[in-house]
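A favour, since you know our structure tokens better than I do. Could you add the entry underneath, on a fresh line?
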Amino acid sequence: MNDDLILLGHGSGGALSHRLLDDLILPVLSDRSAEQNDAALLTIGQSRLAFTTDGYVVDPPLFPGGTIGSLAVHGTVNDLAMMGARPLWLSCALIIEEGLERQLLADILADLRRAADGAGVRVVTGDTKVVPRGKADRIFITTSGVGVIEHSLAIHGGGARPGDRIILSGTLGDHGMAVMAAREGLPLDGLRSDSAPLWSLVREMLAEAGEALHLLRDPTRGGVATTLKELARQSGLLFTIDEAALAVTPQVRGLCGILGLDPLYVANEGKLLACVAPEAAEAVLARMKRHPLGERAAIIGTVDEGEAGRVRMRTVVGGMRMVEMLAGEQLPRIC
């Protein structure tokens, strides 16, 4: 590998992404130790805010279950929700390639507005640029978001504690495989992105768990496997998951089988992982299951003392294997 060049794998959310952040980006841009959470926590007087930003380059811009417009809203409000913040405001910057169809842009913007209204947020500022043909790929969107934290809890990626139960709110890999199917023109009935705003589910979890809710994270790029590895490293603990507890739809399992992909490493955009104290886990799970976005939630593992930063999986045949970060770029341009 040529270390002098930026590769697609550097945008995967996996090991190469972390190396790029640690070796180049954070040393230049960060003036303190960065926890690499989904959003920054800001204090203004007595108010606690969360602030986040993200770029979206999904190909194709329309896919089953959403568009680049709704994805930009959902991805940003979810990053705020994973810090326990109620999303309030968004900015939206459009980079449009010359030649984009006006109707396609209108459809994307309408979908973005519907998603914002559905998530209870307002788009309050933005920017638009048009670049020459061949200098972009139809349309890119960058969104930033601000949310308010209306409780005293500290929810962050390093918050897991020994004994915590690991909860996953639903099935693996729906978004990544829906985008891949649309990209390749594969007609798979029932395969749709799970892109959705998660704050309403998080609000229910906060109400049920209180201080027993220690950690939240949405498994986007790199999937559940890479996200768990990140959280284990941040928390300095050993995560153990059960393969039998992981739910995968037949459509995702079938397409992953055809393409030789592991659903553990495929992105979602409407699911979350949580670490909850053991005495509250069953009650939180029951409340999640009563919410439309948590109907297939399950306890998938535990947080243990042991090899700090490691993730292991108990397989369906009874063995144990280590789970590592996504090494390169499995599915480019899925968010």
